[in-house]
Amino acid sequence: MKYKRILLKLSGEALMGDLQYGIDPNMLKQYAQQIREVAELGCEVAIVIGGGNIFRGVQGVASGMDRVQGDYMGMLATVINSMALQGALEDAGVNTRLQTAIRMEQIAEPFIKRRATRHLEKGRVVIFGAGTGNPYFTTDTAAVLRAIETQADVILKGTRVDGIYTADPEKDPTAEKFETISYQEVYDKNLKVMDMTAFTLSEENNLPIIVFDMNTDGNLKKLILGDNVGTLVTNK
Ligand code: UDP
């Protein structure tokens, strides 16, 4: 196993699958299956999931809502996705814990770093909900923050695209994929990996990022076993 402890970042939109809104149960099942495979190998898995399939702060602002109010609604949206994923994982026979950055004791533990680390050591998959608990941030930043706090070896950003390209491969057929790339090259080439707050936090703490396609069955396991999947961002 190449990575012993990972933080997996999934976007909220990915959960929509072919739907226009909300959560596609087939996507949940597919993700739960892949996560189970790596947990069974003994890999310690922490997860942060976005909320864009349900609500985004900027959506609220566009309809005249206060930004902070909208952001808290976005954070609650991530809790809904986290609970959905937790349910799917438990159905697949995986032990899980949900910890949230905003207290909601009936449904989740509050985020406590030492406790989260203990769960991981015991082989439980830990899901971190409600982002950072602060408005004006994103779940990418929450993912990097929790990865550093829990000393994950790497942050895995699951997307629809199988890595970082010279241009958007869905728009430009000549776009080429990077196998590895440095943080500096990402800045120089103005590539979009994560939002800047998340990206610089990752760089400052030497946390490698792998962008990969989570929608292809078995990819997560391949990655954990050291196969060349996706694009790796490091200090080089
Ligand atoms: N959000 C926030 N603080 C955080 C994380 C999330 O305010 O630490 C809010 C923000 O409004 C964001 C929404 O939650 O638009 C959903 O999160 P995100 O957009 O990161 O989810 P994704 O786009 O990955 O689905």
From TrEMBL:
Homohexamer. The lineage of its organism: Bacteria, Pseudomonadati, Bacteroidota, Flavobacteriia, Flavobacteriales. Signal peptide: none annotated. Coiled coil: none annotated. Pathway: Pyrimidine metabolism; CTP biosynthesis via de novo pathway; UDP from UMP (UMPK route): step 1/1. Pfam families: AA_kinase (PF00696). This is Uridylate kinase. Its main location: cytoplasm. Its EC number is 2.7.4.22. GO terms for biological process: 'de novo' CTP biosynthetic process; UDP biosynthetic process. It comes from Empedobacter falsenii.
